[in-house]
Amino acid sequence: MEILKPADAFDKSAKIYQDKFMDVSLYAEPLNLFCDSITADNARILDMACGPGNLTRYLLTRNPNYDILGIDLSPKMLELAQTNNPTAKFQLMDCREISALDQKFHGITCGFCLPYLTREEAVELIANVSGLLLPGGAFYLSTMEENEESKSRYQISSTGDQVYVHYHQEDDLTKALLEHNFKLSDRKRFSAPDRDGILITDLILVSLSVAPASSAT
């Protein structure tokens, strides 16, 4: 059994991941709230850690006019994403480097990227997202949740390899969102057993970017 970095694990399991997770209808309610929060018809959307383009595809079914840029660490995931969403744009990029992007977005999604980031990296990601969103922009964030970060552990992937997975806590994430000028619109939880039979909770947070109090007029 090999221990892999997330990028290598997703490259290796891209097709398996696509077959298992392309249908995101389970998360339709928070995704619809995210879309309903965006008023611009030709809105620019950043889909971080886009994988095979599952969230991108859902968003485009809601509004084919969305101008979507998807980024991911895995070249094979990006190939699938482009095939699944020929009207969207995709590029190889680490989500920890998004501050280098030179455009602003009406909405940003981050679907299950946080399990591969530490708590500190997650907070930094939220700060970077705040800097990339236009005023009133929407932020969709999902992760696997546990009450204690100490429960983070190596997990066996669909290919039989080991990948380290970080669990995150709602209190930490909502605190970071508030500190970086977000207003929480909704939270949802979905629970199901993982490959080891352990009950895992998926946490979805939808937030809106607001102006800092010091800049209010």
Chart the SSEs and their pairings.
Elements lengths: L5 H7 L1 H8 L6 H9 L7 E5 L5 H9 L4 E6 L2 H10 L4 E4 L12 E7 L7 H14 E13 L7 E4 L5 E4 L4 H10 L2 E12 L5 E11 L8
Parallel strand pairs: 1-2, 1-4, 2-3, 4-5
Antiparallel strand pairs: 5-9, 6-7, 8-9
Helix pairs in contact: 6-7
Q: Quick check: average pLDDT?
A: 89
Spatial shape: globular
Count of discrete domains: 1
Largest sheet, in brief, is: 7 strands, mixed
CATH H-level homologous superfamily name: Vaccinia Virus protein VP39
How many helices does DSSP assign?
Answer: 7
Order of strands in the sheet with the most strands?
Answer: 3-2-1-4-5-9-8
Structural class computed from helices and strand pairing? alpha/beta
Radius of gyration equals 16 Å
CATH topology: Rossmann fold
Would you identify the regions where 5 or more consecutive residues have pLDDT less than 50? none
- Relative helix content: 25-40%
Task: Write the element-wise H/E pattern from the N-terminal end onward.
Answer: HHHEHEHEEHEEEHEE
Distance between the termini: 59 Å
User: Using DSSP, what is the number of strands?
Assistant: 9
CATH architecture: 3-Layer(aba) Sandwich
Strand content: 25-35%
Report the top-level CATH class: Alpha Beta
